[in-house]
C-alpha cells in the first residue's frame, strides 16, 4: 500500500544534474501554479475549504452515514440490506461437498441449489419477543430455527434465528425492522417497540441524528468485537495504537520544525477533509462502505501512508526560506514554497502516484471481505490528500510562516531596543536579518526503521483479511466443522453458525443441494415513547416542511447544506471555533501591522510600484565655482541647506566653530540629494579634514586626511546612533577560521579576528586532536547577567532593614515582579545583598534572551529600586546604578565564584597515540605542565580566574570577529584548565564561569560581525527559544578555548613554542 522511495541527492562529482523529463516539468509547473493561487489569498483558500468541509459533512449525514433520504415519506423504516449482505458468508452443502459445509464464493448460472439466507436477531435483555410475537407477511417464507447457545449461563441477551429464501431476505428484513414489545405494563402510558439498529432514518429528529448514529456505531462495534477472534482483535488493537503513535510522531516532527501545534493540526484537518471527500465520492459511485470496514481499514491506512509527505514539504519550505536571493535577502514565503515544490514536488507526487496505483490494483482485484471496497476508498482519500497538500495545507503554511516572520522581526527589533540600540537602527537590522536558523529543522529521522514498520503494518492488514477468508471453513458445530481456531478463547456470544445444524438436517433429509448466506447478527434496541405523542408524530411536518422550505429558498444543494449546517450541533460548534480562531488571527495580524505602522520613518517614500525597488540617487556635486562669503555660508547653514555647501566650505565652518564636529552627520543628511550612507560618508570625510587641520593638533594629526585608514564603502547606517560617535573610518582586522571543531556532535569553523600569528593555527591544531578523540562536549551550568547598584540609607539600622526585606520572600517577589515588567526577555533569577556601613549593594542576576543585556538589566534595576522605595524605604538614596558589585569589565572574585553571563564547561578526551603523533608529546608531560604552570604558577601570582594558559587570546579574537564587547574579555576570560591521565588518554577540560556574550544588539548588528555569527548559524534571536543562540556562542567559545589550551600546553611541553612563533610571527619580516 505504500512505497518508500529514496530521495535522490546530487553526487559531489556530478558537474551538471540530469535534465528533468517533460512530465516532471509539467507536473511541477502545474503544482506551482496551484500553490501560487492558493497562497495569493490564503485566508480565502482556508475559508473555501472550510465551507466545503461543512457541506460535505452535512451531505454525509444525509446520504451516506445515516442512510437518510430527502423524501420523508420514504425515509422511515428503510433498511440497507446490501450492507448486511456484504458482510455475509456463503456456505455450500451437498453431494458436491461430501455433505460437509464449505465456503462457496462462486455462483454458477446453471446451479439448481436451494439458496437460503440465515438471519439472527439479538435482543439485549431477557424480555425479548417470542417467535409468535414477530409478525411475518404471508408472502414471505421465513421459518424459525432453534439457536444453540454455548454456554447459555453466560449470555445476557436473547436471540431469534430465521431461514429465508435469499431472494426474499430484503423484504423480510424490512418487515421485521420494528417489533412491538408486549411485555410492557398496561397501566403505563408508554409504547415500547424493538427497533432494528440499522432501520433508523430521517424519521428520527434531525438534532438527534448524530447521537443516534454514534450509538448504533458503538453497538455495531461491540457486536463486531464479540464475533471476532482474539488474534483479529489483537492485530486491530496494535493498528489503533500505531495510528495514535503516528499522530503523536506528527506533532513531535512538526515541533522539531518549529511549530508547536498549528501545522500538525492543519495536517490532521487536511487528512480529515480528504477522508470526507473520498467518502462522498465513494458513496456517490455506489460502492458500499460500512462502519466495520472503516474501523478495520483506517488505522492501517493512517500508519502505512503516514505523514512523511507534509513533513517533507514543510522542511523543504523552511529550508527554502533560509536561502538568500540575488539581492542577499531571504526568500519570501511564496518563493520558498515555489522552490520547495521544484525540489520535492515531483517526489511527493511520485509517492502519491505509486500508493494510489497499488490501491487501485487492490480495488480491481476482486477480493471479497471488504478489501476491494476499502482500497477503492483509500485511493480516493490519497488523491484528495495530494490535492489538499498543495492547496489547503500550503495556504495554512503560508499564513503560519508570515505570522512567524512578523513576530520574529518584532522580537528581534525590540530585543535590540532593550539593549540600547535606537529604533531606526534596530528596524534596519531586523529588516535585513531574516535567515531562518538551521537548528529549528531538527535531526533527520532514519527512514529504514519507519520503512520496516510500515511493511509490518501492511502485512498485518493482509493477515486480517486472510484470517477473515480462512475463518469460514475452520469452524465447527455438530455436523458442521466449527471448531474454534483457538478453543481456549472461544466467545460466549451468539454465533449464527450454531443454527446450521437444523439446516444441515433438513437438507440431508431432502437430499437437496443447499447454499446458505449467513447474515451477520442484527441487534435490536428497545425504545419507549408516550402514547400521547404518537398522534403528534404522525402529524409531524418538520422534516417534509423544512426540506420543501429549504428547497424553495435555496434552489441549490450547496446553499441548502450550508443552511442546514447552522442547525447541526456539531457544525455549530465548529463555526463558533472558526469565528474565535478568525478573531485571534485577525487580531494578531492587526497587531503585527500596527507594530510596523508605529515605526518612525526618516522620509515617507511614495510607493508607485507594487514591488519596492531601491531608490537610485544621481551623483550630487556641490557647486565648486560659487564664491560664498562666510556670512553666506552661515546663512545657508541656518536655513538647513548644509548639503549644498562644498566640502571646503563645510570644513571652514567647522574649524570656525559654526558647525560642531558631532553634528556633521545630522546636518548633511538630505534624502532629496543623496542617500543616507553617502551623507554619512561625506560627514566622515569632512571630519577627517577638520581633525587634520585643527590648529591645536595639526602638528601630529595632519596625516589623517590622507591616511590609509579606510572610510569609504562601509554601511554607516548601522553605526550611527548605535556603535560609535565622531566616526573617522573603520579598522579592518584580519579574520581567520580555526577548525573545523566538533562541538557536541556538530562541526564548526571558528572565526577569529587577530593580528597575532600562530593563534589560528594553534587553535586548528588543537581542534584536529580533539576531533580525533570524538570531539568536544560542553555543558552550560548557569545563564544570568548581573548588575549591582549601590544605595544608601541614613542609618545602619535602616540599611539592615532594607537588606532583610529584600532577602525575605515578600521583598523578593515584589522586586521580581517589578523587574520583569520592563522587558519581555529579562527575568530576575536571584538577588544577592551585601552591607558596607550604611551602603547596601544589591546584585541582580537575570536572564536576557539572546542579548548580552546590560542596558536591559539597567532598566529593570531602576524599576525594582523604585518598588523598594515605595515599600517602606522612602529614605533610600540611589548612589549609583552600577556599584561595581556586578562586576563589569574588572577582575573580581564574585564573577569567578558566582558566575556572570554564561557559565560553561568544555571537555575532551584525547587518545594517547594522538597526543604522541599529533601533539608531539606525552600525556604525563601534559598533566605535569598543567599543574605546575596553570594551577601552581597562577596561585603563586595571586591570580583570580587566571588558571589557564591563554584563554583571553582566543576569547578576544572571537569577540572581535562576532561583535562582542572587547572590554568584557576581562571577566569573560576567567578560566581554569584541568588535565588528567585517564588510562593512558588525556582528559582535558576548561571551566569558564563568566562568558558575557550576545547575538543581538551591540556590535552584532554590523554586517561583517553579523556575517561571522551567520557562519556559526546563530545570528540574531533564536526563533523558538530566546537565549539559545547566545548560549550556543558561549559553548563554541569554551570549546575553542579548550582547543587552544590543549595545543599551547602541548607546545610548551614539547619545547616548540618559540620555534613556532618565530616561523609564523617573523615570516613576513625578511
From TrEMBL:
Topology versus the membrane: Multi-pass membrane protein
Span of domain SSD: 232-399
CDD domains hit by this protein: HMG-CoA_reductase_classI
Catalytic activity, reaction form: (R)-mevalonate + 2 NADP(+) + CoA = (3S)-3-hydroxy-3-methylglutaryl-CoA + 2 NADPH + 2 H(+)
GO cellular component, one term: peroxisomal membrane
Source organism, top-level taxon: Eukaryota
Keywords linked to the UniProt accession: Endoplasmic reticulum, Lipid biosynthesis, Lipid metabolism, Membrane, NADP, Oxidoreductase, Steroid biosynthesis, Steroid metabolism, Sterol biosynthesis, Sterol metabolism, Transmembrane, Transmembrane helix
TM spans (from-to): 233-254, 261-281, 377-399, 453-472
SUPFAM superfamilies: NAD-binding domain of HMG-CoA reductase (SSF55035), Substrate-binding domain of HMG-CoA reductase (SSF56542)
Subcellular location: Endoplasmic reticulum membrane
InterPro entries, per database record: HMG-CoA_N_dom (IPR025583), HMG_CoA_Rdtase (IPR002202), HMG_CoA_Rdtase_cat_sf (IPR023074), HMG_CoA_Rdtase_CS (IPR023076), HMG_CoA_Rdtase_eu_arc (IPR004554), HMG_CoA_Rdtase_N (IPR023282), HMG_CoA_Rdtase_NAD(P)-bd_sf (IPR009023), HMG_CoA_Rdtase_sub-bd_dom_sf (IPR009029)
Pathway(s) this gene product operates in, as recorded in its UniProt entry: Metabolic intermediate biosynthesis; (R)-mevalonate biosynthesis; (R)-mevalonate from acetyl-CoA: step 3/3
PANTHER family according to UniProt: 3-HYDROXY-3-METHYLGLUTARYL-COENZYME A REDUCTASE (PTHR10572)
Protein function: HMG-CoA reductase; part of the first module of ergosterol biosynthesis pathway that includes the early steps of the pathway, conserved across all eukaryotes, and which results in the formation of mevalonate from acetyl-coenzyme A (acetyl-CoA). In this module, the cytosolic acetyl-CoA acetyltransferase catalyzes the formation of acetoacetyl-CoA. The hydroxymethylglutaryl-CoA synthase then condenses acetyl-CoA with acetoacetyl-CoA to form HMG-CoA. The rate-limiting step of the early module is the reduction to mevalonate by the 3-hydroxy-3-methylglutaryl-coenzyme A (HMG-CoA) reductase.
NCBIfam families xref list: HMG_CoA_R_NADP
Similarity comment: Belongs to the HMG-CoA reductase family.
Name of the protein in its database record: 3-hydroxy-3-methylglutaryl coenzyme A reductase
Organism classification: Eukaryota, Fungi, Dikarya, Ascomycota, Pezizomycotina
Amino acid at each position: 500500500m505504500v512505497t518508500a522511495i529514496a530521495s535522490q541527492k546530487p553526487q559531489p562529482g556530478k558537474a551538471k544534474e540530469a535534465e528533468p523529463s517533460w512530465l516532471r516539468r509539467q507536473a511541477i509547473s502545474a503544482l506551482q501554479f496551484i500553490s501560487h493561487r492558493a497562497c495569493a489569498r490564503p485566508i480565502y483558500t482556508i475559508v473555501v475549504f472550510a465551507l466545503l468541509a461543512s457541506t460535505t459533512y452535512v451531505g454525509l449525514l444525509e446520504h451516506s452515514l445515516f442512510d437518510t433520504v430527502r423524501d420523508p415519506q420514504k425515509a422511515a423504516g428503510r433498511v440497507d440490506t446490501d450492507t448486511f449482505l456484504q458482510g455475509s458468508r456463503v456456505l455450500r452443502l451437498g453431494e458436491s461437498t461430501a455433505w460437509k459445509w464449505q465456503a462457496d464464493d462462486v455462483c454458477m448460472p446453471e446451479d439448481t441449489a436451494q439458496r437460503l439466507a440465515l438471519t439472527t436477531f439479538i435482543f439485549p435483555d431477557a424480555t425479548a419477543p417470542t417467535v409468535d410475537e414477530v409478525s411475518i407477511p404471508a408472502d414471505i417464507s421465513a421459518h424459525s430455527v432453534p439457536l444453540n447457545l454455548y454456554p447459555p449461563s453466560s449470555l445476557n441477551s436473547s436471540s431469534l434465528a430465521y431461514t429465508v429464501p435469499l431472494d426474499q431476505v430484503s423484504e423480510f428484513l424490512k418487515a421485521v425492522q420494528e417489533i412491538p414489545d408486549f411485555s410492557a405494563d398496561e397501566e403505563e402510558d408508554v409504547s415500547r417497540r424493538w427497533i432494528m439498529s440499522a432501520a433508523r432514518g430521517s424519521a428520527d429528529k434531525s438534532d438527534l441524528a448524530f447521537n443516534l448514529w454514534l450509538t448504533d456505531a458503538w453497538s455495531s462495534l461491540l457486536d463486531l468485537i464479540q464475533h471476532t477472534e482474539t488474534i483479529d482483535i489483537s492485530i486491530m488493537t496494535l493498528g489503533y495504537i500505531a495510528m495514535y503513535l503516528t499522530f503523536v510522531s506528527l506533532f513531535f516532527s512538526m515541533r522539531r520544525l518549529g511549530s508547536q501545534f498549528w501545522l500538525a493540526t492543519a495536517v490532521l484537518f487536511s487528512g480529515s477533509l480528504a477522508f470526507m471527500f473520498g467518502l462522498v465520492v465513494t458513496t456517490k459511485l455506489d460502492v458500499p462502505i460500512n462502519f466495520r470496514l472503516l474501523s478495520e481499514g483506517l488505522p492501517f491506512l493512517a500508519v502505512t501512508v503516514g505523514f512523511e509527505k507534509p513533513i517533507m514539504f514543510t522542511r523543504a519550505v523552511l529550508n527554502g526560506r533560509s536561502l538568500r536571493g540575488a539581492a542577499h535577502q531571504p526568500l519570501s514565503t511564496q518563493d520558498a514554497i515555489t522552490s520547495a515544490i521544484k525540489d520535492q514536488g515531483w517526489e511527493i507526487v511520485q509517492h502519491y502516484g505509486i500508493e494510489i496505483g497499488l490501491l487501485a490494483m487492490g480495488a480491481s482485484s476482486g477480493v471479497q471481505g471488504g478489501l476491494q471496497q476499502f482500497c477503492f476508498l483509500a485511493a480516493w482519500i490519497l488523491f484528495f490528500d495530494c490535492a489538499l497538500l498543495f492547496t489547503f495545507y500550503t495556504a495554512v503554511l503560508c499564513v503560519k510562516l508570515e505570522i512567524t516572520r512578523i513576530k520574529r522581526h518584532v522580537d528581534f527589533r525590540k530585543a535590540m531596543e532593550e539593549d540600547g540600540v535606537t529604533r531606526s537602527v534596530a528596524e534596519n537590522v531586523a529588516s535585513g536579518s531574516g535567515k531562518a536558523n538551521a537548528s529549528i529543522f531538527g535531526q533527520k529521522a532514519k527512514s529504514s526503521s519507519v520503512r520496516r514498520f510500515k511493511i509490518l503494518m501492511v502485512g498485518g492488514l493482509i493477515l486480517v483479511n486472510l484470517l477473515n477468508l480462512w475463518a469460514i471453513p475452520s469452524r465447527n458445530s455438530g455436523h458442521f466443522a466449527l471448531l474454534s481456531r483457538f478453543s481456549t478463547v472461544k466467545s460466549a456470544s451468539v454465533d449464527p453458525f450454531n443454527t446450521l445444524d437444523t439446516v444441515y438436517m433438513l437438507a440431508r433429509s431432502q437430499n437437496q443441494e443447499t447454499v446458505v448466506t449467513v447474515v451477520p447478527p442484527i441487534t435490536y434496541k428497545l425504545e419507549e415513547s408516550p402514547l400521547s405523542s404518537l398522534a403528534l408524530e404522525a402529524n409531524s411536518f418538520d422534516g417534509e416542511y423544512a426540506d420543501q422550505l429549504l428547497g424553495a429558498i435555496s434552489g441549490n444543494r450547496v446553499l441548502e447544506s450550508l443552511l442546514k449546517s447552522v442547525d447541526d450541533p456539531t457544525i455549530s460548534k465548529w463555526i463558533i471555533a472558526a469565528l474565535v480562531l478568525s478573531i485571534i488571527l485577525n487580531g494578531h495580524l492587526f497587531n503585527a501591522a500596527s507594530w510596523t505602522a508605529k515605526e518612525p520613518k526618516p522620509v515617507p517614500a511614495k510607493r508607485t510600484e507594487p514591488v519596492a525597488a531601491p531608490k537610485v540617487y544621481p551623483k550630487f556635486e556641490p557647486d565648486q565655482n560659487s564664491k560664498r562669503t562666510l556670512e553666506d555660508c552661515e546663512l545657508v547653514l541656518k536655513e538647513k541647506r548644509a548639503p549644498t555647501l562644498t566640502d571646503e566650505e563645510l570644513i571652514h565652518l567647522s574649524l570656525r566653530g559654526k558647525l560642531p564636529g558631532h553634528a556633521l552627520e545630522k546636518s548633511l543628511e538630505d534624502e532629496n540629494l543623496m542617500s543616507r550612507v553617502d551623507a554619512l560618508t561625506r560627514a566622515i570625510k569632512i571630519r577627517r579634514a577638520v581633525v587634520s587641520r585643527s590648529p591645536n593638533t595639526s602638528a601630529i594629526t595632519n596625516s589623517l586626511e590622507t591616511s590609509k585608514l579606510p572610510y569609504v564603502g562601509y554601511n554607516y547606517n548601522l553605526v550611527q546612533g548605535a556603535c560609535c560617535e565622531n566616526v573617522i573610518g573603520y579598522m579592518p582586522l584580519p579574520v581567520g577560521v580555526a577548525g573545523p571543531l566538533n562541538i557536541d556532535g556538530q562541526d564548526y569553523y571558528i572565526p577569529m579576528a587577530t593580528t597575532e600569528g600562530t593563534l589560528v593555527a594553534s587553535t586548528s591544531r588543537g581542534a584536529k586532536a580533539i576531533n580525533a578523540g570524538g570531539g568536544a562536549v560542553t555543558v552550560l551550568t548557569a545563564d544570568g547577567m548581573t548588575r549591582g547598584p549601590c544605595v544608601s540609607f541614613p542609618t545602619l539600622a535602616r540599611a539592615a532593614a532594607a537588606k532583610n526585606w529584600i532577602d525575605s520572600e515578600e521583598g523578593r517577589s515584589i522586586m521580581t515582579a517589578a523587574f520583569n515588567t520592563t522587558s519581555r526577555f529579562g527575568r530576575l533569577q536571584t538577588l544577592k545583598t551585601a552591607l558596607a556601613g550604611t551602603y547596601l549593594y544589591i546584585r541582580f542576576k537575570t536572564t536576557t534572551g539572546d542579548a548580552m543585556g546590560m542596558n536591559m538589566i539597567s532598566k529593570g534595576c531602576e524599576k525594582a529600586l523604585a518598588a523598594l522605595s515605595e515599600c517602606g524605604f522612602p529614605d533610600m538614596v540611589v548612589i549609583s546604578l552600577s556599584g561595581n558589585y556586578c562586576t563589569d569589565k574588572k577582575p573580581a572574585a564574585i564573577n569567578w565564584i558566582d558566575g556572570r553571563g554564561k557559565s560553561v564547561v568544555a571537555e575532551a578526551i584525547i587518545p594517547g597515540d594522538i597526543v604522541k603523533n599529533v601533539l608531539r608529546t606525552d600525556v604525563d608531560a601534559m598533566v605535569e605542565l598543567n599543574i605546575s604552570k596553570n594551577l601552581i604558577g597562577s596561585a603563586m601570582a595571586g591570580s583570580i580566574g587566571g588558571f589557564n594558559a591563554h584563554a583571553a587570546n582566543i576569547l578576544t579574537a572571537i569577540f572581535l570577529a562576532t561583535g562582542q564587547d572587547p572590554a568584557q574579555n576581562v571577566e569573560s576570560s576567567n578560566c581554569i584548565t584541568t588535565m588528567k591521565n585517564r588510562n593512558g588518554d588525556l582528559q582535558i577540560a576548561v571551566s569558564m564561569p563568566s562568558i558575557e556574550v550576545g547575538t543581538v544588539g551591540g556590535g552584532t548588528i554590523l554586517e561583517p560581525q553579523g556575517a561571522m555569527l551567520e557562519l556559526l548559524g546563530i545570528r540574531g534571536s533564536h526563533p523558538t527559544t530566546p537565549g539559545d543562540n547566545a548560549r550556543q556562542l558561549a559553548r563554541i567559545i569554551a570549546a575553542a578555548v579548550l582547543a587552544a589550551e590543549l595545543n599551547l600546553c602541548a607546545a610548551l611541553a614539547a619545547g616548540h613554542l618559540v620555534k613556532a612563533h618565530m616561523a609564523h610571527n617573523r615570516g613576513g619580516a625578511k
